[in-house]
Design brief:
single chain; five-stranded antiparallel beta sheet; mainly beta; 19 strands
Length: about 250
């Protein structure tokens, strides 16, 4: 005996007659192309998933992104492996995979801080003798320039997830051209947590990833007890989550 048709899989013709035409699943595709500074240009296309959130996975890094009204998303993402595999996963369990070789990654240091929602966290780099809010202080409000990193001048920061909802998976990534740098010295790395009405008195969780030239990717889970709400506006500076960079001029 044939299985009954699912009414949701039928196309309804004018007048209400059911056409025996199952609705096919949405096809999701993703392409990957090389970009400067060991970055990768990804294009995710899912025509029937417009304005939809998906999770981008790569070597332990995860963040949320959105398709546009046409079901398309264009992202420039930092690679964390020379043989880089990216996975785009939608909430309905559909997704796509792309793979690309990124041989220039060996010239860069790269660190990641990632968390969920409005945790008040931010990644900071003080390049060489930089002071807070001065030249060489790289953070979300002063992210630097990717082209400068590609030429060996300075590092840059990229941020992901901020447009994907209040509970979005967020990530900030700092990249420095260690093996092509035209300067020498130390780069201090830290994560700052601002005490806000959204996180005060809470425990927040985060994760850090660090990739150094010629080494394997290292990860670390972090749990932070935030102060009470009376401390709103204060900052906690977490200086021991990454190994500071020691750079020799090339």
């Amino acid at each position: 005996m044939p299985e009954p048709l699912d009414p949701a899989a039928l196309e309804i013709a004018p007048g209400g007659a059911a056409l025996n035409t199952p609705v096919l699943p949405c096809e999701v595709t993703m392409t990957a192309d090389p970009a400067p500074a060991a970055m990768v240009d990804l294009i995710v296309e899912a025509a029937c998933l417009s304005d939809a959130r998906f999770t981008l996975h790569h070597s332990g890094m995860m963040f949320h992104a959105l398709t546009d009204e046409n079901g398309r998303s264009s992202l420039r993402v930092p690679a964390l492996a020379e043989n880089a595999v990216f996975i785009a996963s939608f909430d309905n369990s559909q997704g796509a995979v792309a793979q690309i070789e990124v041989p220039t990654l060996e010239f860069y240091d790269r660190v990641v801080a990632q968390w969920r929602g409005d945790a008040g966290l931010g990644l900071h780099a003080l390049e060489f003798d930089a002071t807070y809010f001065g030249v060489g202080h790289v953070y979300s409000a002063s992210p630097g320039d990717m082209s400068a990193a590609a030429s060996g001048s300075s590092g840059f920061l990229t941020r992901f997830g901020e447009n994907a909802g209040a509970d979005a998976l967020m990530a900030e990534v700092y990249t420095f051209p260690t093996l092509t740098s035209d300067s020498a010295g130390r780069i201090g790395l830290s994560v700052e947590a601002e005490v806000t009405a959204a996180n005060c008195g809470r425990q927040i969780a985060a994760q850090t990833l660090q990739l150094k030239p010629g080494e394997t990717l290292r990860s670390r889970d972090v749990t932070l007890d935030m102060p009470a709400c009376e401390a709103n506006g204060d900052f906690l500076v977490l200086k021991n989550l990454f190994e500071d960079l020691k750079v020799a001029a090339n």
